[in-house]
Amino acid sequence: QVQLVESGGGSVQAGGSLRLSCVGSGYSAWPGPCMGWFRQAPGKERQWVASITSDGNTRYTDSVKARFTVSKDDAKNTLTLQMNGLKPEDTAMYYCGLRLFSDCPSGGIRSSDFGYWGQGTQVTVSS
């Protein structure tokens, strides 16, 4: 079965940096047609943050552009989110997601577009 294991979350002050990692196992489709990072704050919907295709094309939600970088290492089956210039509004549980059978949507990306998820890692940014 597919497993995604995340790490790297923690508590930082505004302006700080964190590097989140997600290690995949139990499937042969790495890299998937579409892989991504999402975040969810208490009482809010899980929202798309960044995505990357099997050939390395990346997309970001407007609020994290120029601050976050998504990348992958296919030799290690890992997905990474480098987060710089963190803001209090970035505080959330962060999840990596895997979409196995379809390309990334051409328009808006929703959590329902992804079939597999990691357990989540908490990111807390204080002012």
Question: Secondary-structure element sequence?
Answer: EEEEEEEEEEE
Low-confidence stretches: none
Q: Helix content range of the residues, please?
A: under 10%
Q: What is the makeup of the main sheet?
A: 7 strands, mixed
Please count the beta strands (DSSP E, at least 2 residues each).
11
Radius of gyration: 14 Å
State the separation between the terminal residues, measured CA to CA. 40 Å
The helix-and-strand class reads: mainly beta
Mean pLDDT: 94
| Oligomeric state | single chain
Query: What fraction of the residues are assigned to beta strands by DSSP?
Result: over 45%
The gross shape turns out to be: globular
The DSSP helix count reads 0
Question: What would you note in describing this structure?
Answer:
- The protein is mostly beta strands.
- The protein has strands at residues 3-7, 10-13, 18-25, 34-40, 47-53, 58-60, 68-73, 78-83, 92-99, 116-117, 121-126.
- The strands form 2 sheets. Strands 2, 4, 5, 6, 9, 10 and 11 form a 7-stranded mixed beta sheet that branches. A 4-stranded antiparallel beta sheet has the order 1-3-8-7, with no helix packed on it.
